[in-house]
Amino acid sequence: MICISVYDFSAKMMSGEEKSLADYKGKVLLIVNTASECGFTPQLDGLQKLYEANKDKGFEVLGFPCNQFNNQDPGSNEEIANFCERNYGVTFQMFSKVDVKGENCHPLFVYLTRQVKGMLTKQIKWNFTKFLVNKQGEVIDRFAPQTKPGSFKKDIENAIHA
């Protein structure tokens, strides 16, 4: 199967139910690999603020917990969901824990990393790598883990109004 957009993929939600990303057609997406015990975990607050400010304009944040970097998200899906909601008020869609690199890499992240490479490599190097996807399901930008969510607010607004 040739995949031409993020809409060709699906992923398990925290509940275990499979969700097609085609459900997000026509929306601008920010897809992020998250972790609960990372130095960048406070970015969940910024991601939530971006989501709240833009959700009524056709914007969604999709969080994908990952435990591949220094074992920084060891909890169960339920523990991760509770942590994100309790500590950062997360209401954007969180999916089940996935691998974002290596032989068990989720197909969505294989696709994302092939579309826009990072600073030195296509591979995801750490938690909180962020991919901005336009309304057509095409990856238009990639932001490094240390890039704070508020710093690319304009990019999101431009994608919403494009």
Question: Can you describe what's shown?
Answer:
- By secondary structure, the chain is an alpha/beta fold.
- It has one domain (6-13, 26-161): Glutaredoxin, CATH 3.40.30.
- Helices cover 26% and strands 19% of the residues.
- The strands form 2 sheets. It has a 5-stranded mixed beta sheet.
- Helix 2 (77-88) links the parallel strand 4 and strand 5.
- The termini are far apart.
- GO terms for molecular function: peroxidase activity.
- One of its GO terms (biological process) is cellular response to oxidative stress.
- InterPro entries: Glutathione_peroxidase (IPR000889), GPX_AS (IPR029759), GPX_CS (IPR029760), Thioredoxin-like_sf (IPR036249).
Brief account:
The chain is α/β, with parallel strands linked by helices.
Number of domains: 1
Mean pLDDT: 93
CATH architecture descriptor text:
3-Layer(aba) Sandwich
Write down the Rg. 14 Å
H/E topology pattern: EEEHEHEHEEH
Stretches where pLDDT falls below 50 for ≥5 residues? none
Strand content: 15-25%
The largest sheet has its strands arranged as 5-4-3-6-7
The CATH class is Alpha Beta
Outline type? globular
Characterize the main sheet. 5 strands, mixed
GO molecular function, one term: peroxidase activity
Protein name: Glutathione peroxidase
Active site: 38
Keywords: Oxidoreductase, Peroxidase
Keywords for this entry:
Glutaredoxin, alpha/beta, 162 residues, 7 strands, globular, two-stranded antiparallel ribbon, 5-stranded mixed beta sheet, 26% helix, single chain
Describe the secondary-structure layout:
Elements: E1 10-12, E2 18-20, E3 28-34, H1 43-54, E4 59-65, H2 77-88, E5 93-94, H3 107-115, E6 130-133, E7 139-143, H4 153-161
Parallel strand pairs: 3-4, 4-5
Antiparallel strand pairs: 1-2, 3-6, 6-7
